[in-house]
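DATA CLASS: polypeptide
GOAL: derive structure tokens

***
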Amino acid sequence: MFARTAALLATALVLPAAPAPAGEPFARAAACLAEAVYFEARGTPDKARAAVAYVVLNRSESSKFPDSVCGVVRDGCQFSYQCDGRPEALTNVRDRAEAYETASAVLEGTMPDPTGGALFYHNEGVHPSWSHAFHKTATIGRHVFYR
């Protein structure tokens, strides 16, 4: 597994930062998905990381969002880390490897979707006004999921 993660990391380092079109290559989708997992669910158990990854994947399959993983991740300020003014550097080696392993497993379909098809989530410590407009599907780790 480490060799595959290292290969994905090496590939991701040479890819341009622009969103990929639909049908994006696996390595590119994995890099974008790993970035979201790293910043949104770093340090959480496998199931919690997979839940965040599935929201991105579910959105990419919904007509309401961009049709690629990278498109979803780069879609405005949907994910707070995209608009915090800090560079998106995956500096923690262990957390980066876990994020890539989760992203690969979700893209390959070897981890099931624990969210029940969720398209939205928030940290359990906040109560956004939009949450009442959706059906709650799960609470996993520090996040509450909705569709």
